[in-house]
Write a structure and sequence with these properties.
This protein is of the alpha/beta class. Helices cover 33% and strands 20% of the residues. It is built from 20 helices and 27 strands. Strands 14, 18, 19, 20, 21, 23, 24, 25, 26 and 27 form a 10-stranded mixed β-sheet that branches. The longest helix has 32 residues. It is globular. 47% of the residues are buried. About 8% of the residues have low confidence.
Length: 771
Amino acid sequence: MRPYGIEGKRDRRSKKVNKKVDKEKNVSEQPQPTDRRPARRAPAPAVSAPIETPAPVAGIGPSSPARFINREVSWLAFNTRVLDEAKNTRHPLLERLRFLSISASNLDEFYMVRVAGLVELVKAGVTSLSDDGLTPQQQLTEVEAEAAELMAEQQLVWAALHTELRKNGISLITEGDLSAADRDWLAARFMDQIFPVLTPLAVDPAHPFPFIPNLGFTIAAHLKSAEGKAMRALVPVPQKLERFVRLPDTGRKGNKTCRFIAIEAVIGLFWDRLFPGYTVLGGGAFRVIRDSDVEVEEEAEDLVRLFETLLRRRRRGSVVRLKCSASMPEDLRAFIAKALDVGTREPVIVEGLLGLVDLSQLIIDERPDLKFKPYTPRFPERVRDHGGDIFAAIRAKDILVHHPFETFDVVVQFVRQAAADPDVVAIKQTLYRTSKDSPIVAALIEAADAGKSVTAVVELKARFDEAANIKWARDMERAGVQVVYGFIELKTHAKLNLVVRREAGQLRTYAHVGTGNYHPVTARVYTDLSLFTADPAIVRDAAQVFNFITGYAEPGKLEKLAISPLSLRKRLLENIEEEIAHARAGRPAAIWAKMNSLVDALVIDALYKASQAGVKIDLIVRGICCLRPGVPGLSENIRVKSIVGRFLEHGRIVAFGNGHPMPSAKAKLYIASADWMPRNLDRRVEVLAPIENATVHQQILDQIMASYLKDEAQSWYLQPDGSYQRVEAPAGREPFSAHEYFMTNPSLSGRGKAKQAALATPLLPAKGNGA
């Protein structure tokens, strides 16, 4: 899975559109304000420190829709920040190309999911207002305008990167650059490797327009026979074909040039072999994006069979976007749009390269000099001190593993040791997303084969991973694992593993509580936290969470954990209210939080209330943020930072000062699987876990959060008008990078006893709000 993608299903999709809208949004019957939000401006120049005095934004009060930034526009701003990393010369060239490809992939998925939802609402005639006061049609109009600007910028970035790539011996060439020898080589390649898998299609009354799948890439042309007969023709390009054909390298060893040519150019060279006797009068390529969400019937009796059916339907979803190359004649473009039933949505004309997502294929292995230096994650010395026995290490003290700086193999070994340990009697595991050939799944199967009681909660509604999850579920069931699919109406997004072990004639339970998925591949690039604990209260609570999922046994009162949809929102709001009370009593009051997205209106309003009471709030929100910081009288005590860099920020952390200046050993500290969005707080099973062990507490608050607040190398600050400003270090010194710090400094809780003195880790002074 690539980083920086859209996570989770959009909030406003179902067959019962109006019911869904009323349930998920604060619907207002008031007419839309004419001055709904401040005028948006172009991104401001980079700043060397957080803006202390925000630019004033007038007319925004605690009940105005303008207090919220539109969710879709905020996401587009996030993807613009991802694209900006493609221009960041601190990154190696091929990594910049990767960021461009990711931004293109993100935009595709945005249309497949979010825009498709808006289109559906418009078609249904829904006019209810979003939290920020826009109808679905108004949101769609604004999104289309913002997306058009983003697409244009992507093409400019590609042009600049291609120039640099050519200087560094990597080139995407055109037909005009080919030598006679190149053409001969391509002719042989075409007939041997490409021609056999292509299906040329005439389009006429006897040959109706074919189905073009989601993300399908197709070449279309007007043809004319020697007899003067006109014909329209299509050549769908199978997704198994590489988008770019690599030609033989030129130049000498040590100074060679790697050359590629686009598949559509290759097909164009040999069009006569696909349609002998015809000449091309005009043509071009097009690409289709379809609605790719799935809807679940609440009354479904067999969830697996239902999802298999829905996955087949997904590839036939309605077209939400048609992108055509600029070379395509207008009448041919209109013909394709009508055949694909795009309705009133005009095709997008692409001046440049169509399908920028495929540029990742140009990231070649033989140029490590143009990539990030490889990083080998650390293995916690604490576990080595106990001879690799993870359970012994956990019994001694809670352990926090900070991925990817510390290896995810600790999590894998936790499950593998449990599977192989004859004293382990039971394992319970949630699986939201995992990898192909997952070692976690293999270990669960091994444990079941060994006669252990193994329960796996498999979430079928993990978007775009549904098919893989169905496969793993069936593999585990065949091995004797008790597979549970959780709730129909709720996603099980919690990251939990319980291992029950017989020790000295009694049972002891160990828990893993994580912020990220049990996915060894994404764990190499996602920053997440893994807490290992044998705390009796936490493991009792976790057992109740599993019982809730598997048997609908709603927990009475949990001792330490909070879960969605029952108590997590309530816990957050209570802690915010406590900080408000501290501020009003004249005590220090602060909130530090880190998450992927902040959308929930109730939580945002609670933060506004806290700001007005004097609570100093620092938020690190990687992606969508609907909160508008720095507004006088509303949010002047709130600062919002977004970190976009080499690793995808994915961990969720929240700390409340508890009457003490931050960072403080007495702060209330939690990690969670949940972002602050309605779906996470109301329609998912999520877990919020307190951090009470002193070393782990210090590591998360004084080391991890302090580093993020201090970061300059990959940080942006959200401005009151919704724009973002990049942070730059003062002239004359390198900007501080949290990621570099984590890669070069050992964590606190993972240090071995023998090396504590040698690995004394500096704790950073936080650059928090008022710190």
